[in-house]
Write a structure and sequence with these properties.
Helix content: 55-70%
Order of helices and strands: EEHHHHHHEEHHHHHHHH
Radius of gyration: 21 Å
Shape: globular
Oligomer: single chain
Strand content: under 5%
Largest sheet: 2 strands, antiparallel
Structural class: mainly alpha
Length: about 350
Amino acid sequence: MGNVRGLSWQQLVTPLAAVIFGLIAGGFLIWLSGDNPLVAYGGMLEGSMGSSDAFGRSLEKATPLVLGGLAVAFAFKAGLFNIGGQGQLLLGAAFSAWIGYRFALPAIVHIPLALLVGGLVASTLGALAGLLKATRGTHEVISTIMLNFVAANFTEWLVSRDGPWNDPDGGALARTPAILPSAEFPRINGLPSGFLVAVLAAVVVWWIVRRSTLGFEVLTVGANSKAATYAGIGVTKITIVAMAISAMLAGLGGAIQTQGVIGRFEPGFNAGLGFDGITIALLARTNALAVIPAALLIGAMDAGSTLMQSRTDVEPEVISVIQAFILFFVAAPTIVRWVIRTRAEADTGIDLATGWGAS
């Protein structure tokens, strides 16, 4: 078949096959534990799609995953690996909560302002990592990992018992006060409107990468920074901008989580979401539009894990194992191609064996 929004048919086969193989491997694991895989997967499907409430939970779970996946995917286009999504998401979630509870504004101003502030504050972490990469040669994987700890500890201090944003009515709980209703994302027919923002962000990122001058420069730098320099592209500027945009996307995911799901900032509710973006980006082959179904899949699995557990004796951690199987098959496309006997494809996606963001 032809090209589907930047992905060839052969490139689509690998992630689809990876999902199937991951579910089969997970089913075998469930069977070994003494449970019926069909009953377990049936419970997971019903818990994620069986009603409007269940579908709404799946969309809620998928929303920060879409933005986290976009964050990783966009950085990959510039030859960079942003592994700091967790810290960036925490900053976005915390600062959007501060705007949400601190200022009384009309909803038409309050909602986008809290969202924008969360994203912009998070972008500073990415810009810093990009600046260190471009000017000092500091590898972005190292710097973003270290900045994760900085962001996590900083946001925990902000909401700690003696922190400036602590909820005085929360007792010993580390959290902000509840955001005002004017800062909350509304639900549309029971479905979270924050998901629409995530879909819009995916479309915008796709357009930037595929249609804009900035996207051309990002792709050129990611393909060959020396050739980009020879062509007159400012590699330093693109490196900083790409990391800043990547971090902003992760921060928006945290902001929507605060404004559309939790209603305040509590560090524990955001644990691990930033790292899940790596799985989403790999499953989507760094294609911005493909990030949406990839996030929906993982979000639905998470949303359906509770009912799956109630129907069987399967522990919810099995979902994480299944996701790990899927990621393994995505990251090892040679195995997938050998199993399904597809012809070797020209790899224009990600090859983890060649390193991360090498210039």
